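Preliminary data (for renewal application), adenosine-5'-triphosphate complex.
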Amino acid sequence: MPPLLELRNVKMYYNTTRGTVKAVDGISFKLEKGEAMALVGESGSGKSSLAFTIIRLLPRNVAESSGEILFYDEELGVVDLMKMSESEIRRKIRWKKISMVFQASMNALNPILRIQDQMIEPLVLHLGMSKESAVKIAEEALRSVGLSRDVLSRYPFELSGGMKQRVVIAMAIMMRPRLVILDEPTSALDVITQANIMNLLKELKAKFDLSYILITHDIALASEIADKIGVMYAGKLVEIAPADLFFRMPKHPYSQKLLAAMPTLREDKKIEHIPGDVPSLINPPPGCRFHPRCPYAIKGKCEKEEPAVKDVEGSLVACWLY
Ligand code: ATP
Ligand code: SF4
Ligand code: MG
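Predicted structure:
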């Protein structure tokens, strides 16, 4: 069976006054149908940039966007999203096949518009639906996320954070997409509401056979839902591993540091912090980008040659130790 999504050597660079920011720099991975991948990594490692690259929402200052983003669909066949025009993406892909819950999007709901108007706007405006059918779809989507139709007539300030996040998720699943990209969907919520939202995401995944790319700082939360984990460091994926294997045996030195830096409820372990800073993406370190912070760096090798990705007992790892 073909996967749902396959990235091959995808790059996306920004132009800035200080130089070219290589935010996504040669990313390859596959996502299967119904699979959830958590994308983790420190702030500024390029997670959101990768999400925008996949859904083809790029700002004006893009310097380069290249590679292949293959999407396998029953209706469309195999399409390369990189090669599609903006109008094709809008007609065939965005919201219908791939949707996104943006970072901090619950706070981006328009405060002076009722939920109904915000939900139906894209359906009426971009997809040419009648208001009546759009409202039906919005109602149905709200029901799927556990909200009643009364919410339609309310303003965002009349809803709790958790309810707003449900509205945003309802908007993402409204058109029955195959893939939903969720960028920090719970980071602004309290712990109990976070858990409720994660349960909702699990339910929706099973009910609609959805695939997810879940971007999060919270690896513990990721472990709740992820089938596999992708670790991003300075614009590159340094490890992709099945979730259970990743938590038992992270292979890349950066993954090991990331897990050691994660607080757990169960153990009283000492939380380590990762020494050094996330490197500049304008002039990233040569060789392995993690070498200035890596305790195992091999002198004469790691700072010169970029490690290739290898399959190490079921995990894909880019590190010279293997
Ligand atoms: P966070 O966890 O903080 O959300 P992230 O992993 O999502 O971080 P990105 O937002 O993708 O990281 O940013 C990656 C790099 O690209 C950063 O160096 C950031 O400053 C830069 N960047 C992001 N958006 C733009 C833009 N529109 N123009 C120029 N540079 C940008
Ligand atoms: Fe460390 Fe070298 Fe592996 Fe990079 S390639 S993570 S520097 S050992
Ligand atoms: Mg981000």
